[in-house]
Design a protein that fits this description.
The chain has 245 residues and is mainly α. The protein contains 9 helices and 2 strands; from the N terminus they run ααββααααααα. The chain has a single domain, classed as Rhopdopsin 7-helix transmembrane proteins (Up-down Bundle). α1 runs parallel beside α9 (211-242) and α7 packs antiparallel against α9.
């Protein structure tokens, strides 16, 4: 690892920790500013950021244990940057992110339970399949990484189908002052989640792609899909609370 790579990853992880820490405090404090119907969505937004904060602290800790800088030279200590923390975090946060959107739209109780259950199961399967192939980065393992990526795309596409098609009608019935915001939040989630499979494929299409590129790419996607998405959920909840929707 070069010094520039070390600094890039160090600063990216540090920025993510600060972002998730501040977001956690913000979302929990803002629960009192929204109607009771939306407090659960804000609670989930805070929990998602708290979960991400904890796992990024563990990733950062393992990073500092794996590398040290001595006289401007990066030295490996024999430790390992543990990416398992990232996947454990996603196993919890990905389903909760989907539930945030479902709850803030305010479907019927039956629709919320049915859709929430389906999306949660699909999200868990997607993350587990991704984790199974994450460590396969050697030249003779890349075909297996491709297989796991392909398998993970099935639940991923199922989730996209529900976000794009199934939620189209409920979104069209939202109050006019939040309709575009709800739609944009959905597209933010879709767009940020598209980054993950692209980054996952980097070792396959570009074997020279550094480990740092993968981690930075995942971190940027996390900031967008967790903190930025949470802000949009808050804005929707606040506006709907103001008009009593």
């Amino acid at each position: 690892m070069q010094v520039a790579d070390y600094n890039l990853l160090y600063n990216t992880l540090s920025f993510a920790i600060a972002t998730f820490g501040a977001s956690t405090v913000f979302f929990f404090c803002q629960r009192s500013q929204v109607a009771p119907a939306y407090k659960t969505a804000l609670t989930l937004a805070g929990l998602v950021c708290l979960i991400a904060l904890y796992h990024y602290l563990r990733i950062f800790e393992s990073f500092n244990e794996a590398y040290v800088v001595i006289n401007g030279v990066i030295t490996e200590t024999g430790g390992q940057l543990n990416v398992s923390y990232r996947y454990v975090g996603w196993l919890l946060t990905v389903p909760l992110l989907l539930l945030e959107l479902v709850l803030v739209i305010r479907l019927t109780r039956e629709e919320t339970f049915s859709l929430g259950t389906k999306l949660t199961i699909a999200a868990i399967i997607m993350v587990l399949l991704g984790y199974s192939g994450e460590g396969l980065v050697n030249a003779d393992q890349l075909h297996e990484r491709w297989i796991y990526w392909s398998l993970a795309m099935f639940p991923f596409l199922f989730i996209l189908y529900n976000l794009i098609i199934k939620l189209k009608n409920p979104i069209s019935k939202q109050p006019k002052n939040v309709q575009s915001l709800v739609s944009n939040s959905r597209w933010l989630l879709i767009g940020s989640w598209t980054i993950y499979p692209i980054v996952y494929l980097l070792p396959i299409f570009d074997p020279s792609a550094s480990y740092v590129n993968l981690q930075v790419g995942y971190t940027v996607a996390d900031i967008l899909s967790i903190a930025s998405f949470g802000i949009m959920i808050y804005l929707i909840a606040q506006r709907k609370s103001d008009i009593g929707a």
